[in-house]
Design goal:
It contains 17 helices and no strands. By secondary structure, it is mostly helical. Helix content is about 80%, strand content about 0%. The protein starts with 6 loop residues before the first helix and ends in an 11-residue tail after the last helix. α1 runs antiparallel to α4, α4 crosses α15 and α5 crosses α12. It is globular and about 65 Å long. It is a multi-pass membrane protein.
């Protein structure tokens, strides 16, 4: 019996799921400083809170990729909803407990929200890749992933508005379940697509495809593209607070522009090719982070434009590359690549926090205080973060010539 797939409904539901992920990212980023001040946490302790969000994400993605073809994306998305809702609720009530217990609850809440976000990626990426092929797949993956920066844009503006109106940092977390309720409703009762490549549903074929040099290369590169994108964004409130620009407006500008760019990701990828998009992105993101680390005032907004343009296509293009060039890796391959990106970001969060603490101590020793101290320390940390895209320039130059002239692997027609 032929399946009737409502592609539009499934795609729209996936977008609301990604908006939920984006809300959990932007609201936690926007409230990070207030949370730290209220509870007396150092930047390093805040880094561990961040890292649990990014740790839960890849764990859920990898497990979701392993069980995608056995339990289906619908059940994975039910887990996502429960995790999103419980994570937000625990964050809201954590402050009412004694210090050590409240910190433990916040660690759990960040882990749960990360799990919810990872389940979203594990279910929706392979589903979209199975519904569309070729240039259409690149287009729809970009349009799906536009809702991550798009959701961050909306979440950042709502967070800034609620803070201005005097709402507590805890109350802002109740925004997260709103789009979650929408995606649960849209997914309900829908038929989901089967794998577009026969071997993609075989774990043995998945692992065989993931042991190829090309997959391992992309695996390593994804760790660097993810931290290039999420490192500066997650710490916006702390590292740019004294730059003369509003951190949440910088986050909103960056993510808003990324969303617009991803909407046009299909034509851009068709014109430059996947490897061309990745290489150009590495160059421009390096320039963007350099400007962040050296400029103040209005120029910080210019830096945000360069940064957003550089990182906009990284995530959907990396996943699209795996789907197009290594299709036999299946849902698991896409989840592994996405998972390593988030796992890398998780690992680096405490390091970034400690870089900030060290740079503050170093600049304090030089006699700086107040806003001058915060600015110098923030710019020094951003300068260190610039290492990631510089390595990517070299890596994607190699990938560009490695894949030059090669066509995507054949997949079933849709």
């Amino acid at each position: 019996m032929t399946q009737t797939i409502n592609k539009s409904a499934l795609f729209n539901a996936s977008c609301f799921a990604l908006i939920t992920t984006a809300f959990s990212f932007s609201i936690s980023a926007g409230t990070l400083k207030s949370l730290g001040e209220d509870l007396g946490y150092t930047a390093e302790k805040l880094g561990y809170l961040n890292s649990l969000w990014f740790f839960g994400f890849p764990i859920a993605m990898i497990i979701g990729g392993l069980i995608y073809h056995s339990i289906g994306p619908k059940k994975i998305m039910k887990i996502a909803f429960l995790s999103h809702f419980l994570g937000a609720a625990l964050t809201l009530y954590a402050i009412y407990f004694v210090s050590d217990l409240s910190y433990a609850i916040l660690l759990v809440s960040n882990l749960l929200m990360g799990i919810g976000c990872g389940c979203t990626e594990a279910a929706c990426n392979p589903m979209i890749a199975d519904m569309y092929t070729g240039d259409k797949m690149n287009k729809m993956l970009n349009r799906f992933h536009m809702w991550f920066p798009g959701g961050i844009f909306v979440g950042a503006l709502l967070s800034e508005l609620m803070s201005t109106l005097g709402f507590s940092w805890q109350s802002q977390f109740w925004l997260i379940p709103i789009p979650a309720l929408v995606y649960v409703y849209l997914f309900n009762g829908k038929t989901f697509p089967k794998a577009s490549v026969e071997q993609a549903s075989s774990l043995s074929e998945n692992f065989k495809a993931m042991l190829t040099p090309l997959f391992l290369f992309i695996f390593a590169c994804m760790a660097l593209t993810a931290i290039t994108e999420f490192g500066p964004q997650k710490w916006t409130g702390l590292v740019l607070e004294s730059s003369g620009a509003k951190p949440m407006l910088i986050l909103a500008l960056t993510t808003g522009l990324m969303a617009v760019l991803r909407f046009f990701g299909g034509p851009v990828t068709s014109a430059l090719g996947q490897t061309g998009v990745l290489l150009l992105g590495a160059v421009i993101s390096t320039l963007g982070i350099y400007l962040f680390s050296t400029q103040t005032g209005v120029m910080v907004y210019i830096a945000a434009i360069f940064f957003a343009t550089g990182v906009a296509f990284f995530w959907p293009t990396m996943l699209g590359f795996v789907a197009a060039k290594i299709p036999k890796s299946g849902a698991l391959g896409m989840s592994i690549v996405g998972g390593v990106g988030m796992f890398s970001t998780s690992i680096f969060q405490p390091f970034i926090g400690s870089w900030i603490d060290d740079d503050i101590a170093e600049q304090t020793a030089l006699g700086l205080t107040g806003a001058d101290l915060d600015l110098a320390a923030g710019q020094a940390t951003l300068s260190t973060m610039m290492t990631f895209p510089i390595i990517l320039i070299v890596a994607f130059t190699l990938l560009f010539f490695w894949q030059k002239g090669k066509k995507p692997a054949a997949v079933a027609a849709h």
